[in-house]
Design brief:
DNA-binding; about 75% helix; mainly alpha; homodimer; 9 helices; Arc Repressor Mutant, subunit A
Chain lengths: ~220, ~220
DNA sequence: CGGCATACAAACCAATCGGTCGGTTTCTTT
DNA sequence: AAAGAAACCGACCGATTGGTTTGTATGCCG
């Protein structure tokens, strides 16, 4: 018999353990919130010891930040994939909004995202570390939006407004889930924004909306 | 000389102490966030002892809930006062949105509100206790909205959408304050929504927006 | 095979958490 | 004035926090 072949490489073990801890962290953030996601709870859920965590992360803060980065990075990938799914849709505009809603403003991603945003407000260090991934996700949205609304002009602001609406809608659902999941209001918004895009060519808007606009974050 | 007259009545002292603790709690929620607002920090800011807190509140949870209720109740009063300030405004619609933004989606109220909403997600007890005050504030908004958009039909959904936009906008500002405080995008939204209200009489919306709509919360 | 670094476990630690308790001051009541 | 209740203080408590350390098993490499 040959030398005992390692069942799993060290690199594999390391990678898997990190992923396991990160996943448990995200689950805890959803289930218990930021203040309830203590190290003990996270490790208990992951089913590993304190030493495992200490070996792979320098602090609890580090674990949280890594988990946040992982979730956001994965989200950015998914956001870029959305564009492809729009092919064949008769109403690319409505389909895009619906997809973004379903994937990014519901479930664990939404729950954890809100925890993170609120945490970032009082934790400059975390905010600074997460800024790149926030921006990356938004840029991915912008790309998908551009492919769904071919006419170049003015779409940027409308995307920002759309994300505002989805966020406010998500906040609403967090407090009290509605029966239809706010589908009716999303339909209303889709109609309003499309009408606006349509009529925008002909007549100017009553109230000026000039001025520099900064990109939305998440 | 008469018997030593008390400088302050017991009822006064009690009321003031409660208010002092509540105020300190709200300040801490803004400055340190939910997870950072420990009892020690709050009491230190208020400048009172642990015993004072214990005498007036049954638990930390109780203090937090009381502080939240106080802030929301005060906000509801302010929301009802907004209607009056609209008199004399040439553009009541835009003025209302601006007032709501300035008073309820900026500063301490916004910061604490987001902390509370996120906390409520994982704290059913708190959520249940705060639900009435959330609803009360929204109802106050609805009253003001009705007075700014006299034509009865359909305004309700548009108010909800407007609150969604303001929330999403507030979330944006929490992460990264913009130079103009999102004034341009508010202007854009004001124009879009007014156009929609205007054109709503003539032609129907492309995509149906029927179905029962639940009232927005906060 | 053997020396070694990595991966992980579990006991341990000081600090802080929310909460309690005996004691003192301040108002109220008779 | 005296007795009693309410307001308030500050020391104290057990539980839990994030973090460390010591020990062991396992994959890596000469």
């Amino acid at each position: 018999m040959a030398v005992t072949s390692p069942s799993r490489t060290q690199e594999e073990r390391s990678r898997d353990m990190r992923a396991l801890l990160i996943e448990a962290t995200l689950d805890c953030l959803q289930a218990q919130g930021f203040h309830g996601a203590s190290l003990s709870v996270i490790l208990d859920r992951a089913g590993v010891s304190r030493g495992a965590w200490a070996h792979h992360f320098s602090s609890k803060h580090d674990l949280l930040a890594a988990a946040a980065e992982a979730m956001m990075a994965e989200a950015a990938v998914a956001a870029r994939a959305v564009t492809a799914t729009l092919d064949g849709e008769e109403d690319r505009f409505a389909a895009l909004i619906e997809q973004v809603w379903q994937r990014f403003y519901r479930g664990r991603h939404r729950d954890v995202l809100f925890e993170l945003v609120v945490a970032c407000r009082t934790d400059g260090e975390l905010a600074q570390r997460l800024r790149p991934v926030f921006i990356e996700l938004i840029e991915s949205f912008r790309g998908a939006w551009g492919s769904a609304t071919p006419d170049a002009s003015g779409g940027g602001d409308l995307l920002t407004l759309t994300l505002f609406v989805l966020r406010g809608m998500a906040m609403q659902e967090m407090l009290a889930e509605s029966a239809d999941g706010q589908a009716a209001l999303r339909g209303l918004w889709t109609g309003i924004s499309r009408d606006f895009l349509q009529s925008r060519h002909d007549r100017p808007l009553r109230q000026g909306a000039g001025g520099p606009l900064l990109g939305a974050i998440t």
